[in-house]
TrEMBL record:
This is Glycerol-3-phosphate dehydrogenase [NAD(P)+]. Pathway: Membrane lipid metabolism; glycerophospholipid metabolism. It comes from Mesobacterium hydrothermale. Sn-glycerol 3-phosphate binds at residues 98, 126, 128, 181, 234, 244-246. It is found in: Cytoplasm. The gene is gpsA.
Length: 318
């Protein structure tokens, strides 16, 4: 199966490094002349592309591959899809982005499925930092595809000695785990940034996970999927590591500091999208709605904390 990675950012390049060790891989990006010449990117210091990776700015050439891994920010996916005019019949479209589109309120599988019904969407998600993958450190991810036969093939083709993929047919559950954990990571960053302590963060992670599972059930996903790599695994990573952009963004809010606007923070847009969905459907997503209020500067950290702590007492499992 020929493989092309669309998006030469840190994660797309890291995937190219991992997959290109023992098979040919095409890495596409709009501005890749320097990467083509030097075989390295400042986003991954000390890491070089293996000989098996072909770097190109020719999108049509990249689209000839049988498996297309779309590695770009979630909020860019729809716009990118609209620029491609050709059909992608029979291809596997593997979304490597995490979030909910702020305009359509859809996840990546719905966007790809609507744009190319003749192709098969899949999701690659889970606890992973680009630098770890690029350095060959052991990493485990979820590969979700509704077509289990294709899912098994993708699992074989995209696994390496250090990149281990676990298969699922619950596409919605897998993509929701990757999207919602970013929101909770922002909340945890706020908690630590505001000096509320590790105990508060642990409680917030736990109640955040309950919120993730509740929304997954609403969407018809299997809550057990959220207990796997795409949900609980990714939640543990992004809520506790300074390498997480969402966590660092939350830290800046809690500390009342500025944040580099050029850094992609998927959880910020996802929180806003989910808050709109919750309002439309009468759903209770208090942590998500609190993060959305902070992101939009509609509330202060103190006000949000007061609201969360003033909620009615309830059974833990509800």
């Amino acid at each position: 199966m020929s493989i092309a990675i669309l998006g030469a950012g840190a994660f797309g390049t890291a995937l190219a490094v991992a997959l290109g060790q023992d098979r040919p891989v095409t890495l596409w990006g709009r501005d890749v002349q320097a990467l083509r010449v030097t075989r390295q990117t400042p986003r991954l210091p000390g890491v070089f592309l293996p000989d098996g990776v072909t770097v190109t700015a020719d999108l049509e050439r990249a689209l000839d591959a049988a498996a297309l891994l779309l590695s770009m920010p979630m909020q860019s996916l729809m716009g990118f899809a609209e620029t491609i005019r050709r059909p992608l019949t029979g291809k596997a479209l593997v979304a490597c982005c995490k979030g909910i589109d702020l305009t359509t309120l859809q996840g990546p599988s719905a966007i790809l499925g609507a744009r190319w019904p003749e192709a098969t969407p899949a999701i690659l998600t889970g606890p992973s930092f680009a630098a770890d993958i690029a350095r060959g450190l052991p990493t485990a991810l979820t590969l979700a595809c509704a077509d289990d036969v294709l899912g098994q093939r993708l699992q074989r083709e995209l696994s390496t000695q250090t990149l281990r993929l676990y298969r699922s047919t619950d596409v919605i559950g897998a993509e929701l785990g990757g999207a919602l954990k970013n929101v909770i990571a922002i909340a945890c960053g706020v908690t630590i940034g505001a000096g509320l302590g590790d105990s508060a963060r642990a409680a917030l992670m736990t109640r955040g996970f309950a919120e993730m599972a509740r929304y997954a059930r609403h969407r018809g996903a299997d809550p057990a999927t959220l207990a796997g790599l795409s949900g609980l695994g990714d939640l543990a990573l992004t809520c506790t590591s300074d390498l997480s952009r969402n966590y660092r963004f939350g830290l800046s809010i809690g500390r009342k500091e500025g944040f580099d606007s050029s850094v992609t923070v998927e959880g910020a847009a996802t929180a806003r999208a989910l808050a709109a969905i919750a309002s439309d459907h009468g759903l209770s997503l208090p942590i998500t709605q609190a993060v959305a209020a902070l992101v939009e500067s509609r509330a202060t950290v103190d006000a949000v904390l007061h609201d969360l702590l003033s909620r009615p007492l309830k059974e833990e499992t509800r």
